[in-house]
Amino acid sequence: MLRLRKMQKEQKKGGSPQKTVSVAYIRAKRDLQEYEEIPGISISYSESNPMHIKLTVRPTEGYYANGIFHFECQVPEDYPNRAPEFKCLERIYHPNIDLEGHVCLNILRNDWKPTLTLGLVFAGILHLFLHPNPNDPLNKDAANDLSKYPESYEHHVQTSMLGGYVGDLKFDSVWDSHKRRPFY
Protein backbone atom coordinates (compact mmCIF):
# COMPACT_ATOMS: atom_id res chain seq x y z
CA MET A 1 0.00 0.00 0.00
CA LEU A 2 2.85 2.36 0.81
CA ARG A 3 4.49 1.64 -2.54
CA LEU A 4 1.25 2.45 -4.31
CA ARG A 5 0.92 5.78 -2.50
CA LYS A 6 4.54 6.63 -3.27
CA MET A 7 4.00 5.84 -6.98
CA GLN A 8 0.83 7.95 -7.05
CA LYS A 9 2.64 10.90 -5.42
CA GLU A 10 5.42 10.67 -8.00
CA GLN A 11 2.85 10.76 -10.80
CA LYS A 12 1.24 13.89 -9.35
CA LYS A 13 4.63 15.59 -9.04
CA GLY A 14 5.33 14.87 -12.68
CA GLY A 15 7.73 12.05 -11.89
CA SER A 16 8.15 9.01 -14.05
CA PRO A 17 5.26 8.62 -16.52
CA GLN A 18 4.19 5.21 -15.21
CA LYS A 19 0.64 4.07 -15.66
CA THR A 20 -1.47 3.92 -12.53
CA VAL A 21 -1.14 0.57 -10.82
CA SER A 22 -3.94 -0.85 -8.67
CA VAL A 23 -3.56 -2.30 -5.21
CA ALA A 24 -4.79 -5.63 -6.63
CA TYR A 25 -2.05 -5.60 -9.29
CA ILE A 26 0.67 -4.92 -6.71
CA ARG A 27 -0.65 -7.54 -4.30
CA ALA A 28 -1.02 -10.21 -7.03
CA LYS A 29 2.50 -9.49 -8.28
CA ARG A 30 3.88 -9.74 -4.75
CA ASP A 31 2.00 -13.01 -4.09
CA LEU A 32 3.46 -14.50 -7.27
CA GLN A 33 6.99 -13.28 -6.53
CA GLU A 34 6.84 -14.75 -3.02
CA TYR A 35 5.24 -18.01 -4.18
CA GLU A 36 7.29 -21.02 -3.15
CA GLU A 37 7.00 -23.91 -5.56
CA ILE A 38 4.62 -26.69 -4.53
CA PRO A 39 5.24 -30.20 -5.93
CA GLY A 40 2.43 -31.01 -8.35
CA ILE A 41 1.69 -27.34 -9.16
CA SER A 42 3.11 -25.18 -11.91
CA ILE A 43 2.08 -21.63 -12.73
CA SER A 44 2.66 -19.25 -15.59
CA TYR A 45 1.79 -15.61 -16.05
CA SER A 46 3.01 -12.56 -17.86
CA GLU A 47 5.18 -10.22 -15.79
CA SER A 48 3.13 -7.38 -17.23
CA ASN A 49 -0.18 -8.98 -16.22
CA PRO A 50 -0.14 -10.86 -12.89
CA MET A 51 -3.94 -10.64 -12.84
CA HIS A 52 -4.28 -13.61 -15.22
CA ILE A 53 -2.57 -16.82 -14.15
CA LYS A 54 -2.44 -20.27 -15.69
CA LEU A 55 -2.23 -23.10 -13.20
CA THR A 56 -1.39 -26.73 -13.93
CA VAL A 57 -2.08 -29.41 -11.33
CA ARG A 58 -0.39 -32.84 -11.58
CA PRO A 59 -1.39 -35.01 -8.62
CA THR A 60 1.02 -37.85 -7.86
CA GLU A 61 -1.30 -39.82 -5.60
CA GLY A 62 -4.97 -40.48 -4.96
CA TYR A 63 -7.81 -40.92 -7.44
CA TYR A 64 -6.42 -38.29 -9.82
CA ALA A 65 -2.78 -39.46 -9.89
CA ASN A 66 -1.21 -39.17 -13.36
CA GLY A 67 -3.70 -36.57 -14.51
CA ILE A 68 -2.86 -33.11 -15.82
CA PHE A 69 -5.44 -30.45 -15.01
CA HIS A 70 -5.31 -26.88 -16.32
CA PHE A 71 -6.91 -23.89 -14.65
CA GLU A 72 -7.20 -20.23 -15.45
CA CYS A 73 -7.18 -17.76 -12.60
CA GLN A 74 -8.54 -14.27 -12.90
CA VAL A 75 -7.56 -11.93 -10.08
CA PRO A 76 -10.36 -9.39 -9.51
CA GLU A 77 -9.70 -5.65 -9.34
CA ASP A 78 -10.70 -5.63 -5.68
CA TYR A 79 -8.22 -8.37 -4.70
CA PRO A 80 -7.33 -9.13 -1.90
CA ASN A 81 -10.73 -8.08 -0.58
CA ARG A 82 -12.35 -10.55 -2.97
CA ALA A 83 -11.07 -14.03 -3.76
CA PRO A 84 -9.49 -14.89 -7.12
CA GLU A 85 -11.65 -16.85 -9.56
CA PHE A 86 -10.51 -20.22 -10.87
CA LYS A 87 -11.89 -22.31 -13.70
CA CYS A 88 -10.82 -25.80 -14.76
CA LEU A 89 -10.36 -25.88 -18.52
CA GLU A 90 -11.11 -29.58 -18.95
CA ARG A 91 -14.37 -31.36 -18.23
CA ILE A 92 -13.56 -33.67 -15.34
CA TYR A 93 -15.43 -35.97 -12.96
CA HIS A 94 -14.89 -34.41 -9.55
CA PRO A 95 -17.30 -33.65 -6.69
CA ASN A 96 -15.88 -30.15 -6.13
CA ILE A 97 -15.54 -29.08 -9.77
CA ASP A 98 -18.66 -28.86 -11.92
CA LEU A 99 -18.90 -29.78 -15.59
CA GLU A 100 -18.30 -26.13 -16.60
CA GLY A 101 -15.07 -25.99 -14.56
CA HIS A 102 -16.24 -23.94 -11.56
CA VAL A 103 -14.35 -24.78 -8.39
CA CYS A 104 -15.90 -25.27 -4.95
CA LEU A 105 -13.20 -24.53 -2.38
CA ASN A 106 -14.11 -22.97 0.96
CA ILE A 107 -11.26 -20.43 0.84
CA LEU A 108 -12.57 -19.15 -2.49
CA ARG A 109 -15.98 -18.49 -0.96
CA ASN A 110 -17.06 -18.12 2.67
CA ASP A 111 -13.63 -18.56 4.24
CA TRP A 112 -11.82 -16.02 2.04
CA LYS A 113 -9.75 -13.48 3.96
CA PRO A 114 -7.54 -10.73 2.51
CA THR A 115 -4.58 -12.26 4.36
CA LEU A 116 -4.73 -15.40 2.20
CA THR A 117 -2.35 -15.54 -0.75
CA LEU A 118 -2.50 -16.97 -4.24
CA GLY A 119 0.00 -19.64 -3.18
CA LEU A 120 -2.35 -20.86 -0.46
CA VAL A 121 -5.19 -21.09 -2.98
CA PHE A 122 -2.94 -23.07 -5.37
CA ALA A 123 -2.24 -25.50 -2.50
CA GLY A 124 -5.99 -25.69 -1.76
CA ILE A 125 -6.77 -26.67 -5.34
CA LEU A 126 -4.11 -29.39 -5.25
CA HIS A 127 -5.67 -30.59 -1.98
CA LEU A 128 -9.03 -31.03 -3.77
CA PHE A 129 -7.38 -33.58 -6.06
CA LEU A 130 -5.66 -35.41 -3.23
CA HIS A 131 -8.75 -35.38 -0.98
CA PRO A 132 -12.00 -34.69 -2.88
CA ASN A 133 -14.77 -33.55 -0.54
CA PRO A 134 -18.20 -35.15 -1.14
CA ASN A 135 -19.74 -33.00 1.63
CA ASP A 136 -19.49 -29.70 -0.28
CA PRO A 137 -20.21 -30.68 -3.89
CA LEU A 138 -20.73 -28.88 -7.15
CA ASN A 139 -21.07 -32.19 -8.99
CA LYS A 140 -23.63 -34.08 -6.91
CA ASP A 141 -23.36 -37.30 -8.97
CA ALA A 142 -19.61 -37.52 -8.34
CA ALA A 143 -20.11 -36.66 -4.65
CA ASN A 144 -22.77 -39.37 -4.28
CA ASP A 145 -20.48 -41.91 -5.96
CA LEU A 146 -17.55 -40.98 -3.72
CA SER A 147 -19.51 -41.15 -0.47
CA LYS A 148 -21.67 -44.22 -1.21
CA TYR A 149 -19.81 -46.22 -3.88
CA PRO A 150 -16.05 -45.48 -3.66
CA GLU A 151 -15.09 -48.35 -6.01
CA SER A 152 -17.51 -47.09 -8.65
CA TYR A 153 -16.20 -43.56 -8.10
CA GLU A 154 -12.63 -44.71 -8.69
CA HIS A 155 -13.67 -46.48 -11.90
CA HIS A 156 -15.58 -43.38 -13.10
CA VAL A 157 -12.61 -41.13 -12.35
CA GLN A 158 -10.25 -43.39 -14.31
CA THR A 159 -12.68 -43.69 -17.23
CA SER A 160 -13.23 -39.95 -17.34
CA MET A 161 -9.50 -39.15 -17.10
CA LEU A 162 -8.92 -41.31 -20.17
CA GLY A 163 -11.48 -39.27 -22.09
CA GLY A 164 -14.31 -41.76 -21.78
CA TYR A 165 -17.97 -41.57 -20.91
CA VAL A 166 -19.54 -41.67 -17.47
CA GLY A 167 -23.22 -42.24 -18.11
CA ASP A 168 -24.00 -40.19 -21.20
CA LEU A 169 -21.35 -37.51 -20.49
CA LYS A 170 -18.08 -37.45 -22.41
CA PHE A 171 -15.05 -36.20 -20.50
CA ASP A 172 -11.77 -34.67 -21.64
CA SER A 173 -8.67 -36.82 -21.58
CA VAL A 174 -6.36 -35.53 -18.88
CA TRP A 175 -4.13 -38.59 -18.61
CA ASP A 176 -0.40 -37.80 -18.64
CA SER A 177 0.70 -39.55 -21.84
CA HIS A 178 4.07 -40.33 -20.23
CA LYS A 179 2.42 -42.46 -17.53
CA ARG A 180 1.12 -45.98 -17.81
CA ARG A 181 -2.63 -46.26 -18.21
CA PRO A 182 -4.62 -47.97 -15.43
CA PHE A 183 -5.89 -51.50 -15.78
CA TYR A 184 -9.41 -52.48 -14.84
UniProtKB/TrEMBL annotation:
Family matches, as PROSITE patterns: UBC_1, UBC_2
Active site: 104 (glycyl thioester intermediate)
Domain UBC core: 23-166
Pfam family, one: UQ_con
GO molecular function: ATP binding; transferase activity
UniProt-listed SUPFAM superfamilies: UBC-like
Pathway: Protein modification; protein neddylation
Keyword tags: ATP-binding, Nucleotide-binding, Transferase, Ubl conjugation pathway
Family: Belongs to the ubiquitin-conjugating enzyme family.
Xref: PANTHER family: UBIQUITIN-CONJUGATING ENZYME E2
The protein's name in its UniProt record: NEDD8 carrier protein
Lineage, top ranks: Eukaryota, Fungi, Dikarya, Ascomycota, Saccharomycotina
Gene, per the UniProt record: UBC12
